[in-house]
Amino acid sequence: MFLNRILVSLAAAQCGHCWKYATENEFRTSLGQDVPALIAFVNVSTSQPHDSILLTEQRSNPSLASIGFEPEWDSIREKHLNTISVNCIRNRKLCDETEISSFPTIRLYGTNGTMQRYRGPRRAKDIMAFVQRMKRPTISELKDEAVESFHKGDGIVFVARLAPYDESLRVRFDNLATHYRDRYSFGLAHTSVPDSSVSCYNNIDSLQFNANDLSSVDALQTLVHRCKTPLVALLTRRNEIDYLSGGKSLVYFFTSDDVRRDEYVTEIRPLAKRFSEYLTFVTVDSSEYADMLLGLGLAKDASEGLALQNPQTGHAFPHNGRINAETVEQFIVDISEGNVQPWNGQMPVVSQEEENTSHDEL
């Protein structure tokens, strides 16, 4: 927790309080340019100090969440020409007019008068991927030789191979692409085979899913759900019930450091793929789910922690020691072979920090 305070303070200092707020006239001028306008609507009080911002406070306080977003937005401004920010405390009327209700809100205004809301993580790389996605047509028409290069061009890509005269699938695929175009990319190739098919390429996890039987009304939505579900998901209030009732044991990784979370996900992804039939891997924001740490036998003040839980039996197995792909795999094997007993509900395991700072008496 203390580390989070330092990291956010340093980020704000390096950014130099980079919010440069646009006036209403500047906002309207940006909409008239020949480059799409990427606009962040924030809620920053000038009396709010930029230092000593906890990540937990950012998530519960709109003003602090906007301040914490500063370094990401500064990076975006270097990549996109027409980028401005509007402070809704200073421009309440404008924000009411544009129906802004949460912060930070990010929208892309097209040169043709269209507007697209951004719904993804508030990170520069994800926002820029969204901007690039919105430059493409809703559905890209593909020749056979272009399919392979196209399906590698985004995190998640859908490609329909349309059989002659299959107008029904064309309409359904059009509707799907229109609904999800801000999140995924869509391509269409014509084929001479009698049956149409749709493939989804999850390039984040290196997975491919195919829907060959499209007779069911919900066939495409089922494909979307299968393909978008990550091998290592972030547990949130919205999805926690789905994961807890999914029937598989859960491997939780706790941290409040986004950089460390990304490192863990990258390293653990191959392991999650191998054990996907039996285990579900999730990451958890320890600042938001502090009580869950204690319920799984982990120290509440640990900088990070890992535990395996069987929701069916309620058994929890807290991990003690360093956390990497090798140690996590051995931990899972030890549990499966009966070499690790469930937590007894008493004292939490020794945190990694405590373990690293302890000394043997000689």
Write the layout of secondary structure elements.
Elements: H1 2-15, H2 24-31, E1 37-42, H3 55-60, H4 62-68, H5 70-77, E2 83-87, H6 92-97, E3 105-109, E4 115-117, H7 124-135, E5 140-142, H8 147-150, E6 156-162, H9 167-180, E7 185-190, E8 197-202, E9 207-211, H10 219-228, E10 232-234, H11 240-244, E11 249-255, H12 258-274, E12 279-285, H13 290-295, E13 304-309, E14 316-318, H14 325-336, H15 352-357
Helix pairs in contact: 5-7
What's the story with the biggest beta sheet? 5 strands, mixed
Order of SSEs = HHEHHHEHEEHEHEHEEEHEHEHEHEEHH
Taking all residues together, what is the mean pLDDT? 87
Question: How much β-strand is present in the residues?
Answer: 15-25%
| Poorly predicted parts | 1-17, 50-60, 351-362
Adjacency order of strands in the biggest sheet: 5-7-6-8-9
What is the helix fraction of residues, given as a range? Answer: 25-40%
**Count of individual beta strands:** 14
Name the structural class.
Answer: alpha/beta
Rg calculated over all Cα atoms: 24 Å
Q: Termini separation (Å)?
A: 33 Å
Helix run count: 15
Q: Outline, from the CA principal axes?
A: flat
